[in-house]
Amino acid sequence: MRSRTQSEKRMRAWISASQRLHLAMAGELAVDLGTANTRVYAVGRGVVLNEPSVIAFNKSQGRVVAVGRQAKMMIGREPSSIRVVCPLRDGVIADFDAAEKMLSHFIRRARTKRAILGPRVLLCVPSKISHVAHRAVEDAAYLAGASQVSFVAEPFAAAVGVGLDVWAAHAAMIVNVGGGTVNIAVLSLGGLIHTSTLRVGGTEIDEAIAQYLHQERGLAVGKQTAEAIKHWLGSADCEADGCMFEVGGQSLTTRLPSRVEVSSAEVQAAIEPLVQKIMRSVRESLEELPPEVAADLIESGMVLTGGGAQLLGLTERLGRESGLEVRLAANPECAVVVGAGLLLRPDVPVPELLPEAKLPAPDVLAPDLGFAEAPNNSSSSGLLAAPHA
Fold first, then answer.
1. Domains in the chain, ordered, with CATH?
2. Has residue 239 got a pLDDT over 70?
């Protein structure tokens, strides 16, 4: 009996040592493969990559000529010999070959030089994803060089990233506004009580602005110009501030280069239908919650994450229409990938994508994770901005 016990101990020690060796040789990465941007978190180093989800190819040779920011600068300016691709649409892969090559480039950049084996990769995906889309992103990750691939729902990772106690018996609400989707989730006891995905995001807002200028002002503008207009004048609040922005493009009448002045009121009118979709989806999610969960949210409120959450006035308007305290994460763009990176710790179980809540294991309570003691005190973690009334 003693020899068997000693043998088992030696075997466990050997397995533990081999796991540590594999980690040192391979590394672990969390990847937020977004419609607009891809972010990578490396264990022990933090966020090591934040690049646009764009790749450019030479048409005749099929060779990659640029990835990330360099490729994004080519959009609308590329010669006939170059094809610029945004591989993701509405949060899922639209061009598999381009997505695989782009992800492979990003993984190589994020890995350390001493890494020999392919990294273990934790991928962030929308909370409601089809089997086909799930398989596509998994295959792309393996072809990009990953040795092992696992998944986590974006809103769960975002909640961990902003410091919410997702393991407590107290509900918390996350609204993650990304480039292609809005993920709404209510979490408690380490699982998703409710989740919904709306195919509206920053990319669709850019398209709405470009379409408005085309129809109402007779001006054709590119994707990057429309995005700049959104950043300068975009607002989710009906009370526009009267700012003006001079926009350059092509006149649809003369076909010549032209400039027009656009007001913040015009931009707000252009994106208002999409903002209303977000408001309606949040209200519908709140209406479906059980009474106890609704009572919890009166105390814990709602947290906004994602790059699209920075749209001017969105926090205030959601607060008015939901009746909850709404807070914007201090670094909303990186909340998902930071949370996924924290979930790579060996003592933290990654939840399933399905929305059934599960009790956490006794040894993974919130104090061990370094999160807030309770959801309504999550701002004490320093990861949330000051609450908005």
1. 24-54+87-200+276-389 (3.30.420.40), 202-271 (3.90.640.10)
2. no
